[in-house]
Queue: 3 jobs
Job 1
Amino acid sequence: MKRFISILLAATAALSIATAANAHDHGDKDKMKDKMKKEMHPSIVNIAANNPDFSTLIAALKAADLVSALEGDGPFTVFAPTNAAFDKLPKGTVESLLKPENKQKLVDILTYHVVAGAVYAKDVVTLDSATTLQGTDVTISTNMGTVKVNDATVVMTDIKGSNGVIHVIDTVIMPK
């Protein structure tokens, strides 16, 4: 009987400790769930940052202090130029834009690549323009299955992030 009571007390103590630990860890579990959700569904910035073809775009977003804005809830649609798109700009343009004294011009260019809301390819083909976060419109056209945003060709569509969608373009578009 003594042994039974000892086992019962030990089991009760273990159960109490486990219950207390579980209650204490509940906040940590919520944080873990949020972290896993972000890892499973990264933001549009995280998607771009983990793709070497967007390293110039990420450098520009950092120089313009736009990373945290584009990591926000959104949703956003980003027409994302690749490194090759930035390479098409006249020599020295990117380097000049990354200088602190040209920050506002860089912000204007980058926000000209972003539209509020998640606009997927099926929606883009029905549009002829879209208002950018910079405040002016981009022209959208479709011809024989090719979608253009101003003079840029959309080369990949519907890269879905937790806070929006990316459409990859082959040219940096400039506000008028």
Note: The chain has two domains: 1-40, 44-169.
Job 2
Amino acid sequence: MRLAAVVSIAVFALDQATKYAVVHGLDLARVQAIDVWPPFLNFRMAWNYGINFGLFAGESAVVRWGLIVLALGISAWVWVWSRREAHRPLVQVSAGLLVGGALGNVVDRVVYGAVADFLNMSCCGIANPYAFNVADITIFAGAIGLVLFSGGGGAPKRRKTP
């Protein structure tokens, strides 16, 4: 579980540092848009009051605190669940990615009242209207990793030596 903790802390720190740098350092909250490498990478300020793609969005305190409780509950469940596969490094990395990202978005909801999304990427003539952040990337990668790398048996069996 140490690996999961290290990954989780690193992801949380990276997520919060990038949000602070972009939202406050580059003043994206006021400027709203910065073209970094159009159309491939742009900064577009978006306050997400819901979950992915703005689903369940609402500026009410009930929605905000409900999503905070839900994220904390899922994070705790993933943390406890991943302990049973502590012998699998990829499961631990995946759990750390998911939990660190989820906690980063929880801090946003507490501090700002919404999740700070700012990354916008488009390609090949397709204009992406959505923005996301580092936490969103790691939550997605962690969830995929947990699906791919968990399961398939218990702890490794020890060989008997003759």
Note: The longest helix spans residues 2-25.
Job 3
Amino acid sequence: MSQFFEVHPDNPQPRLIKLAADCIQKGGVVAVPTDSSYALVCHLDDKSAVDRLRRIRQIDDRHHLTLMCQDLSELATYAKVNNRQFRLLKLGTPGPYTFLLDASKEVPRRVSHPSRKSIGLRVPDHKVTQLLLQTLGAPVLSTTLALPGGDGPLNDAHDIREALEHELAAIIDAGSCALEATTVLDLTPMNTGGDAEVIRQGAGALDRLGL
């Protein structure tokens, strides 16, 4: 049965965030609030946790998982970023955007796209998730918390608890999130002089990025 942490959305209690971080460090999958919807997160380097996350979502290795980072300096460690891409990233972070980029050697092969060697990265604009990432001192692997066959992302921690309390190590309840997935942009064409491609229009406005 999962632990349930009720935290303040604007002033999250460090003690509770530390307990949630411990769950991730020990290999658990945790439900966290973000600036788009709730997400499932786990430790990047824990293969069994990654497999469990995929099993909960019922997705295979061709589904892009996302590295959730605290800031752009962390993001650059895990992706190959040129100047054009960096300017776009700077406009969209922190915020409800997921950027697809070529993965660096720091990203385990099992979590990058098997044919393209790319990875999704984002920097969330949510105080609870930011404190969690700060406490961990490392990015987490994440995916939108949407159940197989469902209508969209789950937005209420109590609904998440009812559906997944035997699958998750912990749930962070910080109230309802926006009920919309991130905007996803593929920046890999910019490596060869092309432009960013919109894969999914979601919570992030394109005009913020000049697109």
Note: Helices lie at 14-25, 47-57, 72-78, 83-92, 127-136, 157-164.
